[in-house]
């Protein structure tokens, strides 16, 4: 048996300011707030999901924003940079937009591609790159036109405390193919079979450990096409000597978690059922959605959460 992931399903991070989180990802980046729910393991904390109009796998970034969360340190054992992909010719638009919204950025080159790199309101490291592949985003918000809108993930840069072991997991467990090495930048690149979230860059040298907290990634999730394949993934990972949590119901997908030897928390997540399982497409993100076992506590849960809403951010 051999399994191959199509690429990134979602990336989940910590944050401290719920409204600030919405302002940045919906207001600045123009993503759709597709689900407003809670951390099932800590119901006093929001779990917010942003993505394209449908919340398709490969576009979903999620956050646990909680006031008072301490600031983390980006480093080994984490996703170091989250990469978003935009249509060809869109980078100039994004340079102007970020400048007008007072988001400072720098430019970088890796594997012959040009990137705009910047940080969100909590310090999370992000970048934009132009690529042809991947469907266009049909969602327009915050003044971002459809032909310039973020399509989803271009991939990610993984910071590993043990690069050789992480490379082994990417290749021999997740089924990625090494497609290049950028000696000048010090990265090796792996590719998956999908058209979004499909290029993973990894520093060849080990990265000193980071620490969790606001402005850092909690975990990165890889795609499984259905429940049958997901069960096979659980066994496949265990066969490679990596302990898993077993299958966990996350309402909008099923999840299996494991930590690879470089310290990064990986998840395998199913594409279905998706975010319309409890809301209509045109209603996504409007209401606080709770799993049925938390519904009896709705009033208490809502009273403990800071009100949030997507809003337009004024440009200079």
Automatic annotation (TrEMBL):
The keyword ATP-binding is annotated on this UniProt entry:
no
The organism named in the record is Paenibacillus kribbensis
Q: Which UniProt keywords apply?
A: Dioxygenase, Oxidoreductase
Q: What is the lineage of its organism?
A: Bacteria, Bacillati, Bacillota, Bacilli, Bacillales
Entry's transmembrane regions: none
InterPro entries for this protein: Extradiol_RC_dioxygenase (IPR052537), Glyas_Bleomycin-R_OHBP_Dase (IPR029068), Glyas_Fos-R_dOase_dom (IPR004360), VOC_core (IPR037523)
Q: What stretch or stretches form a coiled coil here?
A: none
Record's protein name: Ring-cleaving dioxygenase
Q: Which PROSITE patterns match?
A: VOC
């Amino acid at each position: 048996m051999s399994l191959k992931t199509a690429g990134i399903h979602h990336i989940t991070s910590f944050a401290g300011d719920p409204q600030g989180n919405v302002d940045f990802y919906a207001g600045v980046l123009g993503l759709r707030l597709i689900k407003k729910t809670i951390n099932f393991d800590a119901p006093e904390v929001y779990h917010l999901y942003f993505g394209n109009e449908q919340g398709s796998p490969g576009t979903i970034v999620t956050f646990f924003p909680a006031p008072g969360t301490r600031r983390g340190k980006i480093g080994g054992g984490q996703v170091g940079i989250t990469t978003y992909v935009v249509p060809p010719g869109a980078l100039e638009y994004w340079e102007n937009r970020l400048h007008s919204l007072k988001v400072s950025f720098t430019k970088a080159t890796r594997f012959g591609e040009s990137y705009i790199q910047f940080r969100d309101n909590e310090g999370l490291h992000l970048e934009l790159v132009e690529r042809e592949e991947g469907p266009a985003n049909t969602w327009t918000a915050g003044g971002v036109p459809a032909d310039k809108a973020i399509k989803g993930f271009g991939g990610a840069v993984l910071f590993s405390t043990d690069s050789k072991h992480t490379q082994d997991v990417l290749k021999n467990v997740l089924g990625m193919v090494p497609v290049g090495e950028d000696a000048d930048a010090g990265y090796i690149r792996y590719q998956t079979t999908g058209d979004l979230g499909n290029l993973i860059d990894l520093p060849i040298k080990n990265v000193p450990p980071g620490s969790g907290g606001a402005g850092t990634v909690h975990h990165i999730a890889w795609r499984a096409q259905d429940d049958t394949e997901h069960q096979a993934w659980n066994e496949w990972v265990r066969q490679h000597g990596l302990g898993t949590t077993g299958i966990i119901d996350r309402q909008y997908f099923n999840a299996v978690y494991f930590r690879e030897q470089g310290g990064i928390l990986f998840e395998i997540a199913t594409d279905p059922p998706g975010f319309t399982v409890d809301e209509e497409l045109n209603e996504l993100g409007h209401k606080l959605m709770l799993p049925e076992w938390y519904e009896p506590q709705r009033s208490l849960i809502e009273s403990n959460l800071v009100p949030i809403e997507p809003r337009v951010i004024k440009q200079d």
